[in-house]
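Customer escalation, tier 2.

The customer says the design service returned an amino acid string that "doesn't look like it belongs to this structure." They asked us to rerun it and document both sides in this ticket. The original structure tokens are below, unchanged.
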């Protein structure tokens, strides 16, 4: 069930807002971000600062040289550089600094709630203890609540190019810090690593009361989305943009209000779509899907959440104030926050648009 109601007064307010005001409204409206890999928020400047602090030698001479290497042809070409960038993360303070930088940015972008993916195996496989990772991230999440007024939570992701046994090992190692993460996800190389590979470990996670989400239908076929739903019982589909190739799947996703965490700039940088003008976000919304906009790996893909929104709306003139409101509403509905909190954010959003149009 959708949590938001487009009342006649709200519809009139949204329809009265001229397109010229959209960029500012997109940036200032309250919203949630649900698809953000914290390692993908590591900016080149911070990579170099942490490399120096930790005595790590990078295979790039400068920030500019590193940034120049950010020319991707597909998901794997990005992941190779993304894992290399994460190699500077060694101490608890590094994980804190990375997450804090993102959360400060989120506060400045009027993100009231953020659910952050992290990839423990990227770090434990380099010898970094999992408690160093989780403690650093959790400290930033806690401080964001008290100092920034941003509600944030962590979602532990399993790397799907590794084995299910490795995922079980990671889950076991993380359980002493269970209170610091609300769920698990599935990321990394999608093609050739279907959700079915992780059916048993996801079942265990659900038994433990963890939320479960999975990347599916970014590069992978609609069949991977079916698997994520049927075998993993995923509560959201991360990306999911290829669902439109399967009309029966679209009907199923719409009927169940299954959220799709769409990431437009990521899709362009990884060549999932040729251009933002050709992105299927308007079609997803027209189909009644619970889609919202997210930044995925903002340090690598050319922009944080507000830039994703502004650039996407600029490229797709069929997106207007009604869609802005719908995307933010969907972001709250799809979050793992409690119902009372969602209702408060939704009321704030409705008031924001009513006031803007008054
Ligand atoms: O967009 C992504 N897809 C899959 N894995 C990832 N890990 C970081 N970003 C991504
Ligand atoms: Zn992602």
């Amino acid at each position: 069930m959708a949590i938001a109601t487009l009342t006649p007064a709200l519809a009139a307010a949204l329809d009265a807002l001229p397109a010229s005001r959209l960029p500012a409204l997109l940036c200032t409206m309250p919203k949630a971000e649900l698809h953000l890999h914290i390692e993908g928020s590591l900016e080149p400047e911070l990579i170099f600062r942490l490399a120096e602090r930790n005595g790590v030698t990078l295979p790039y001479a400068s920030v500019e040289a590193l940034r120049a290497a950010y020319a991707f042809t597909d998901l794997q070409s990005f992941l190779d550089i993304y894992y290399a960038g994460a190699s500077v993360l060694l101490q608890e303070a590094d994980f804190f600094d990375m997450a804090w930088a993102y959360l400060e940015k989120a506060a400045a972008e009027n993100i009231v709630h953020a659910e952050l993916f992290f990839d423990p195996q990227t770090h434990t496989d380099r010898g970094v203890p999992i408690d160093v990772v989780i403690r650093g991230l959790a400290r930033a999440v806690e401080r964001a609540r008290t100092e920034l007024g941003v509600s944030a939570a962590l979602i532990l992701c399993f790397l799907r190019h590794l084995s299910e046994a490795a995922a079980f090992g990671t889950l076991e190692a993380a359980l002493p810090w269970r209170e610091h993460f609300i769920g698990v996800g599935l990321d990394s190389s999608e093609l050739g690593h279907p959700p079915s590979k992780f059916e048993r470990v996801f079942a265990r996670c659900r038994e433990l009361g963890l939320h479960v989400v999975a990347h599916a239908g970014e590069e992978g076929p609609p069949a991977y989305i079916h698997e994520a739903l049927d075998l993993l019982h995923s509560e959201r589909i991360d990306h999911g943009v290829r669902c439109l190739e399967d009309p029966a799947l679209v009907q199923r996703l719409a009927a169940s209000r299954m959220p799709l965490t769409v990431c437009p700039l990521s899709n362009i940088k990884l060549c999932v779509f040729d251009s933002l003008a050709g992105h299927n976000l308007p079609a997803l919304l027209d189909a009644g899907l619970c889609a919202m906009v997210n930044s995925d790996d903002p340090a690598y893909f050319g922009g944080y959440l507000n830039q994703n929104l502004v650039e996407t709306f600029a490229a797709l003139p069929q997106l207007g104030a009604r869609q802005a409101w719908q995307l933010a509403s969907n972001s709250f509905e799809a979050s793992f926050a409690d119902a009372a909190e969602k209702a408060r954010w939704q009321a704030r959003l409705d008031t924001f648009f009513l006031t803007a149009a008054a």
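Tier 2 assessment: The sequence is consistent with the input. The first helix runs from residue 8 to 16. The two ends are 29 Å apart (CA to CA). Sent an explanation to the customer and offered a walkthrough call.
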